[in-house]
Specification:
Elements: E1 2-9, H1 13-31, E2 35-39, H2 44-50, H3 56-62, E3 67-72, H4 82-94, E4 99-105, E5 123-129, E6 133-142, E7 150-156, H5 159-176, E8 181-186, H6 194-209, E9 214-219, H7 220-229, E10 236-239, H8 241-254, E11 262-266, E12 272-276, H9 293-305, H10 309-325, H11 339-349
Parallel strand pairs: 1-2, 1-3, 3-12, 5-10, 8-9, 8-10
Antiparallel strand pairs: 4-5, 4-11, 6-7, 11-12
Helix pairs in contact: 1-9, 1-10, 1-11, 5-6, 7-8, 9-10, 10-11
Bound molecules: 3-isopropylmalic acid and manganese (II) ion (MN).
Length: 350
């Protein structure tokens, strides 16, 4: 029995989570698994009502689950930064979700904006460090509002943080068993301290513990160029937090958009959190038009992370079938089906 904390969140989050749970229920019945869900009301609505973002007591409870399933966070009436820092980033830090795993995989039948590229060419994963870099919050503002104002936002990278992220990436490439290649995405020509550390550890542990995995390097600016021009060059990309944030939005676009892009905030030794990587899409709230496949894909990643690889594969294959045989588009309102109908289709093809 798996205990899952469900955080539907804001906007269209609850609509897509509903479909994800529907699919989880169906696959668990078929596979003889048991899920026990506890819903938590967190997000913009609760903040506006009570001033609470993530009460300590709730955080303590979240630590007790096998996984966390998150819809979306973000509310038009809440100032930017409050929910992001207070909820999403706080969960990443407090639960030490040090890997942000973002597969970039084009399913058959899904449109990509890349000309002449198909599912054969677009199939890689980004392993984004998720607890350090500029996200660590080091820095500050002095003399605010004066002509002598100074703003500093430093990047914090630790040997431990870099090493555990790299190890995850190498191990993941081994498990994927495709090109068996890890590309370190950095900026060694400018960020000479941070990427000196990354690059040294990359080669040190790569040579010693992962000799079967090919090591490659690309500057971040070249990485985005090649993600568009030659996405087939990539197998596993590993990178620091901010670069990973940026390149995975490009990744989501080339795999068909936010309607299909799923991700996991992972603590390999603890409780992990899975989510569609798109936002709360407030303008579509309650309309039953957004694509739930990203959220259903996040459920598949959660199953995989729990060790239920067969169930995960069934869900992923059903998503593929729905993409290739039904959906006209991945975009909200253009799928040719409602949110609910897409969830039903996935269940049908499980
Ligand atoms: C993401 C988001 C977050 C990030 C924001 C909402 C804080 O863009 O998960 O990629 O920057 O990591
Ligand atoms: Mn982002």
């Amino acid at each position: 029995m798996y205990k899952i904390a469900v955080l539907p969140g804001d906007g269209t989050g609850p609509e897509v989570i509903r479909e994800g749970l529907k699919v989880l229920d169906a696959v668990s019945a078929a596979e003889g698994l048991k899920f026990d869900y506890t819903h938590y009301d967190l997000g913009g609505e609760r903040y506006l009502r009570t001033g609470e973002v993530l009460p300590d007591s709730v955080l303590a409870e979240l630590r007790q689950f096998d996984a966390i399933y998150l819809g979306a966070i973000g509310h038009p009436d809440v100032k930017p930064g409050i929910l992001e820092k207070g909820l999403l980033l706080r969960l990443r830090f407090e639960l030490d979700l040090y890997i942000n795993l973002r597969p970039v995989k084009l399913y058959p039948g899904v449109d990509t904006p890349l000309k002449d590229k198909g599912p054969e060419e677009i199939d890689f994963v980004v392993v984004r460090e998720n607890t350090e870099g500029q996200y660590a919050g080091a820095g500050g503002i002095m003399r605010k509002g004066t002509p002598h104002e100074i703003a500093i936002q430093e990047s914090v990278c630790t040997r431990m943080g870099v090493e555990r992220c790299l190890r995850y990436a190498f191990a993941y490439a081994r498990r994927r068993n495709k090109q068996k290649k890890v590309t370190l995405c950095g900026k060694t020509n400018v960020l000479t301290y941070v990427f000196d550390l990354w690059e040294r550890v990359f080669h040190e542990i790569g040579e010693k513990d992962y000799p079967d995995i090919t090591r490659d390097y690309a500057h971040v600016d070249a990485t985005v160029m090649w993600m568009v021009k030659n996405p087939e060059w990539f197998d596993v990309i590993v990178t620091e937090n901010m670069f990973g944030d940026i390149i995975t939005d490009l990744g989501a676009m080339i795999q068909g958009g936010m309607g299909i892009a799923a991700g996991g905030n992972i603590n390999p030794e603890g409780v992990s959190m899975f989510e569609p990587i798109g936002g709360s899409a407030p303008k579509y709230t309650g309309l039953n038009v957004v694509n739930p496949l990203a959220c259903i894909g996040a459920a598949a990643m959660m199953l995989d992370n729990l060790g239920e690889t067969k169930a995960a594969e069934r869900v992923e294959n059903a998503i593929k079938t729905v993409c290739s045989t039904h959906l006209k588009s991945m975009a909200a309102g253009k799928m040719g089906y409602t949110t609910e109908e897409v969830g039903d289709l996935v269940v049908k093809y499980l």
